[in-house]
Automatic annotation (TrEMBL):
Phylogenetic placement of the source organism: Bacteria, Pseudomonadati, Bacteroidota, Flavobacteriia, Flavobacteriales
Domain Peptidase M16 C-terminal: 189-366
Species this chain originates from: Myroides indicus
Classification via Pfam families: Peptidase_M16, Peptidase_M16_C
Official protein name in the record: Putative Zn-dependent peptidase
Biological processes, Gene Ontology terms: proteolysis
Family: Belongs to the peptidase M16 family.
């Protein structure tokens, strides 16, 4: 049976490796805009996306929330697209669009029928070259962002977990605040500050344009040159990397959430950049511990011992540092300390014992499936192409990163767990219901 499993695993690896190779062309315009083209004639659809190398970590500590604010603001309108007309123009031409912001980057994209590629390129060039940034737009989007924060953070059960984890894990690095930022900072900002932020970061030499789908590559290149080639190059951005001191003593913190009735306990660790091999090993560790109902922690504390209502872990990979965390909600009759003991026991097993060969093959199969799934649709593929260029510096990782995961050994899993998941390197956050004041 074990031999059969190994044979099937090897067969699956070989098939997916050959079937999933992503072909692409890339080049850079004279103004520094990097361009990636991927042709896929399987459906008459095209994705046009622009990723800017600006996120929450690029903000002034006294003006947090700017990058996320611009995610909204740059839909307000341009010199040639009247205010309020952006979304109407997209939907009227059979398209859809969206944007999102992280600590490291901001991403805009449109999905159109392929005969509207020229329209999509023109619209994104307009956003880059001719955005209208005025007080009306700033005031409007200020209210939009405040409502989003109320809905997704302030009034969302467990909505501030990640913000609290970041605040306690980082003392120097701008990862210590969340992309939604501070509403007080946005209220205090002047129009000139918004204009300066746009001028500094939303420039062609700080971005990558990806066009993926049913395209004629030569025609696409012509339109890209026509609409983006004349946009002036911006000033080179000077970036600084704040270096955190190592965590050598357990950090204990508490946060009261008025929106919850059940407490949650979180263990969190500061981990290396997503560009490192160790970050990929931590991805695998997270999968072993908590991905799916057969994972170690879920099976142990949710199914077998019925100590937790829910438990999960994640390795949040980011450009400068990562965050690895494990979170659980104790069942009635059990405490947060009980869950921490169970979590620690499973982590210690990873630190002292090799996972079985069978578990290792299962792990490899999970990552093979993730690799296939992530590149299975044109939207995900376009996002991955942009990310690998802008944040990793290597577009071909879209094909080769799976080889890194394949080469990770059982011994590496043990050693990385031993290196990064120690009690004296962690945060223990008690995320609890709001305490009632005594009368």
């Amino acid at each position: 049976m074990k031999k059969s499993l190994l044979i099937l695993s090897a067969l699956f690896l070989g098939i997916s490796a050959s079937a999933q190779k992503v072909e692409f062309d890339q080049y850079t315009l004279d103004n520094g805009l990097h361009v990636i083209l991927h042709q896929d004639k399987s459906a008459p659809v095209v994705v046009t996306s622009v990723m800017y190398h600006v996120g929450a970590k690029d903000e002034n500590p006294e003006r947090t929330g700017f990058a996320h604010f611009f995610e909204h603001l740059l839909f307000e309108g341009t010199k040639n697209i009247e205010r309020g007309e952006w979304f109407k123009l997209v939907t009227a031409n059979g398209g859809q669009n969206n944007a999102n912001t992280s600590d490291d980057r901001t991403y805009y994209y449109e999905v159109f029928p392929s005969n509207n590629l020229e329209l999509a390129l023109w619209m994104e060039s307009e956003r880059l070259m001719h955005p209208v940034i005025n007080q009306i737009g700033v005031d409007t989007q200020n209210e939009v962002v405040k409502e989003e924060k109320r809905l997704r953070v302030d009034n969302q059960p467990y909505g501030q977990i990640f913000s609290e984890v970041k605040k306690n894990l980082f003392a120097k690095h701008p990862y210590r605040w969340s992309p939604i930022g501070s509403m007080e900072h946005l209220d205090a900002a002047t129009l000139d500050e918004f204009l300066a932020f746009n001028k500094k970061f939303y420039i062609p030499n700080n971005a990558v344009l990806v066009v993926a789908g049913d395209i004629d590559k030569e025609q696409a290149k012509t339109w890209i040159q026509q609409y983006f080639g004349t946009i002036p190059k911006g000033q080179k951005i000077a970036r600084t990397h704040a270096v955190e001191d190592p965590i050598t003593t357990q950090i204990n913190a508490e946060f009261e959430d008025p929106n919850i009735q059940l407490p949650m306990v979180i263990e969190a660790f500061r981990t290396p950049s997503m560009k490192t091999r160790e970050a990929r090993v931590l991805d695998m560790i997270s999968t072993i511990l908590s991905t799916g109902k057969s994972s170690r922690l879920y099976k142990k504390v949710v199914d077998d011992k019925k100590m937790a209502l829910e438990i999960f872990a994640a390795n949040v990979a980011q450009e400068d540092y990562g965050i690895y965390f494990i979170a659980g909600i104790p069942m009635q009759g059990y405490s947060s300390d009980d869950l921490v003991r169970e979590i620690d026991e499973e982590v210690e097993k990873l630190q002292t014992k090799l996972i079985s060969e069978r578990d290792y093959q299962k792990l490899q199969n999970i990552f093979e499936k993730q690799y296939v799934d992530e590149n299975a649709n044109i939207e995900g593929l376009a996002h991955n192409l942009a990310t690998y260029y802008l944040l990793y510096g290597d577009v071909n990782l879209i094909n080769s990163e799976i080889d890194i995961y394949r080469s990770i050994t059982r011994e590496e899993i043990r050693e990385v767990a031993k290196k990064y998941l120690n009690k004296n390197q962690r945060l223990i956050l008690d995320y609890i219901p709001e305490k009632q004041a005594n009368n």
